[in-house]
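User: My collaborator sent over this chain with a note saying "see what the structure looks like." That's all I know about it. Can you take a look?
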Amino acid sequence: MPQPILRLLKHTSRLRLWLVAQLTFSLLALARLLPARTAIELAAALGQALGPFSSRHRIALDNLRAAFPEKNEEERQQIARQMWRNMFRLGAEYVYLEQLFDFDPDADEPGLIEVKGEDIFRRLQAENASCIFFTAHTGNFELLPVCAATFGLNVTALFRPPNNPYIAKRLLSARRTAMGHLVPSKAGAAWGLAKALEDGGSVGVLVDQKFHRGMLGTFFGRPVKTNPLLPKLARQFERPVHPARCVRLPGGRFRLELEEAIELPRTDDGEIDIAASAQMLNDIVERWVREYPDQWMWFHRRWDIGKP
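Assistant: Without extra context I'll predict from the sequence alone. Here is the result:
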């Protein structure tokens, strides 16, 4: 293709990304003019109405049919509609993240946030422990680093920026205000997490994303590739590995759950088995998703292992 046409296409694509970013920023600015609960519920209603018309809706339904063959089509459609509600809610909640997190460990009355595993948080803080936390795209997973900071834990979180570079730049800046240290998921990210562990801090990793150079395993009985970064860090630094998740509750509330450290599988020579450990992470996330299927992102190509 001639160079002038290639340059034109490149500029057109960049303009489209910029326009999408400006529209997104405008909608978020509009949301700030509304009370938090009103804006979040409006976003949820828009998600349920508009999500099924998205090209990603078909991907979500295909994934749900493969994951839940025992469910009928109406049940799968209902899960997908609720998923879109949750995804649009998540977008609106970015605007109010610091307002939403009202958890006070010493408060007598419950707020929007409840914490299961508070004793574990307190113990890790008292021990000044260096740990590896992992979670998945369930509930509002963005609240977990905020919770860790509330208990005085120094956590560096691996952050996968959106594909739109304009949105990614704004989002990364916004997330730094409440979430402590962030490492963008790109070349060199492993070094950033390793440095945090070397310095005695803790790290947090999302483990349910496709990684085309990952370890081959299964998720809902289907082949997937999983990023081996977490097991490799655990093997190198011998740090405890804690599962953590966020569960949406009725009434706009959340439950943040921290579990005790898991024992990763080891090889005959005593080292952590990378492939078996990656599968263990898949199994834990599958358990979470089966419990609350409408709170997970079914529209991404988690099982498409043939493409980068």
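A starting point for your reply to your collaborator: The mean pLDDT is 86.
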